[in-house]
Amino acid sequence: MKAVAYQKAGPITSPEALVDIELDAPIAEGHDLLVRVQAVSINPVDTKIRKNVSPENNQWKTLGWDAVGIVEAIGDKVSQFKIGDIVWYAGALNRQGSNSELQLVDERIVGHKPKTLEATEAAALPLTAITAWEMLFDRLQVPKKAPENTTILVIGGAGGVGSITIQLLKQLTNLTIIATASRAETQDWVKQLGADYVLDHRQPLAAQIKQLGLTAPLYVFSTTQTNQHLADIVDLIAPQGRFGLIDDPEQLDIKPFKTKSVSVHWEFMFTRSIFQTEDMAKQSELLNEVSKLVDEGKIKTTVTEVISPINAENLKRFHQQIESGTTKGKIVLQGF
């Protein structure tokens, strides 16, 4: 089968950063689905792994943590899917990724693709939807019905995770949504998705919230550049608030949060699959719930660019774009 992989971690400018190769097709066992991949999207985790993680014993490592495809074979313990089902998922960090024609994925982290979306439209959503859902409802424990004027600040609202976070908040909660974006194009984007207010994250955030006369956010979700905004977050968050992040600052000093008794939550959507937690199947459940919201017209795809085929040349180009930190929404590739 065709795949795009690498053998040594390094910069995207290296000729060996991503290579078109042929691999043997894997075999489904246990809870595994063997999926023929139709479309994939690219996430920051792809670039982080490629730069920092080399496979052992000179093996090939295949990236890709978002996919839509057709179930081609199933393991003997599979109970929720059958051959021919069209599925979507974000996969597992400790297994081969979706940048290949065939991929094994555990059914407990797989959902049924929304019927109303094309494969390319659906491929933009799984990883970001899982990340946003787990942060909002599992980590920050955002209530579906909060007291009036309860606010949440989403830093990096125009990115992949921010884009779906805003939509989930708009459709499933009554919170006032404050999002950040720095360019006119991205500010319009987050407004279209449902943000009630938009701040420029190139300027001090606390001062902007005060200027607007808004209630101090009880919840703050930082999707990017947390190290640059931490002092501002400490200043603007409400006492006894909840703060969550998903990026990887080199250092994170949370001591300043003590005075306000702020709780800190670090979301990693691969935790359930890495540790095979008892509630691992919750990812399947939430993907099916998001699929339902999409088919009801309440959530829209966040794809902003689609290209074909899935190959090393195209993946390298979009890895560079992701690393620039200027991506709006999600980039999707389709077909081999």
UniProtKB/TrEMBL annotation:
One of its GO terms (molecular function) is oxidoreductase activity. Residues 10-333 form the Enoyl reductase (ER) domain. The keyword Metal-binding applies. Gene3D superfamilies: Medium-chain alcohol dehydrogenases, catalytic domain (3.90.180.10), NAD(P)-binding Rossmann-like Domain (3.40.50.720). InterPro entries: ADH-like_N, ADH_Zn_typ-1, ER, GroES-like_sf, NAD(P)-bd_dom_sf, Zinc-ADH_QOR/CCCR. CDD domains: AL_MDR (cd08252). The keyword Transit peptide does not apply. Pfam families: ADH_N (PF08240), ADH_zinc_N_2 (PF13602). Keywords: Metal-binding, NADP, Oxidoreductase, Zinc. Belongs to the zinc-containing alcohol dehydrogenase family. Quinone oxidoreductase subfamily. NCBIfam families: adh_fam_1 (TIGR02817). This is Zinc-type alcohol dehydrogenase-like protein. It comes from Acinetobacter pittii (strain PHEA-2). The lineage of its organism: Bacteria, Pseudomonadati, Pseudomonadota, Gammaproteobacteria, Moraxellales.
